[in-house]
Amino acid sequence: MDLFGDSDSEDENVSVGPSQETLKIIAEKQKSTEKTAEEQEVHFPTPIPLPALWPEPLFQGPVVFNDDSEEFGGGRSFVAQVDLPPGTLLMKELPLSTWPSEAIGKALSVDVLKSVPNLGLLDNLFPYKLSDVPASVVEERRSSMDAELKHLSSEISVPADDLLRYYFTLTCNGFDSGVYGHLSIFNHSELPNCIKFSPTDGVPYSEVRTVKHVKKGDHLTISYMNPREQSFARRRKYFLDQHNFDIADEIRGLSTVQKFDSTTRSAEEVENTEKTIDEFTKMYEEFKAVNDEAGKASVEFASEIKEKLSLKCRDLYAASLQLVSTVLSMFPSHVILLRCLRLHTNLCALMLDLASTSRNVLIDEMEGINILSDFVENTGKLLDLQVEYHEGDTHPDVGATVLDLAEGINGMLGKAPGRLFDLKVYRLESIVASSKYESELRATHRRIEKMFK
């Protein structure tokens, strides 16, 4: 189902120091404007009541419901009631309906409507009537799903055209974690100022928080893409298929991290590379799941599993290393480089975990140091790109990466400090500089972590 998502220190205000000059400027601006957690305690005015369309959200922050703008989806949106710092909690909400397990990962079918406990709850979600959807799209879906619509209509005594509208309502408003009322009012942006967190084990609700400084009156937006870092062609197809509108050609440049396109590669080459990243990512997730399960088994059985797994991971690691080299040369500023680097550094971490937790170690000390060195170098590249892509160092993705880089530097300082100086990573020119940079990275992680607690 192609639905969208989805400690204290005196150095708390130290910003990440990327290697590119443009990123240094961003980091310096961020450093001068960031506030500590205590300074961020703003006394917000009482939130304006939301329309009584669905059950009230569990929490509503300083947001204003706006229903007079034709510029945003369905003519409705949320805007900031006051100036908001990064990390501000805007809303918590339980889903109106979750997806049946058999529907996850598959194309949305009409039958999924049977999982919605009260179809009437969808009446206030866009589209409000079939005429809100392009006529050609309505006719195409009506024709292709005619038998399913008639069967379900007979089964639950709801007119077929009403079911078709409800179907479009789910495609337009469904998140990967379910269908929400108030959270669906947050509109999509290619440069969102908020992020939606999905429910986790023990936390049944979703929440939305700011990831940037937002001015009073600004529209509050999230990204419907998951993962967000995809090519223009993929984003365009997604919105045509799922939301029935065509994104403007002028945002094509947002396929690049930088403000210009430094590659002349064809769309076919980009798509083929994305497919490879998709394939490798699926394999990595399967391997990680096996490793996680092995951690719950007996020591001897776990060691046997990890020994076999390390052979498969070694092949995938080598392939991803080659992929990173290819993408760096072919698409040096394309957003898919972010996904590629994240995949590769995740594989590095998995390989290192296998080496440290398996009794029958198949990764010797020198190979482990090489992998750790590779991890530090590519995590540094990923951090540089993330800071630029997210326009600062206040995004949770940046927080995760700075911690990874700090852990990697710490590992290299303990095992092979001399190798650090050969890496093309900002501020690793000496042991003292590396130790100081590690400390600053950890402080940055704590600062970002506080924002989202």
Automatic annotation (TrEMBL):
Transmembrane segments: none annotated. Residues 1-13 have a biased composition (Acidic residues). Pfam families: SET (PF00856). Residues 1-22 are annotated as: Disordered. SUPFAM superfamilies: SET domain. Residues 61-225 form the SET domain. This is SET domain-containing protein.
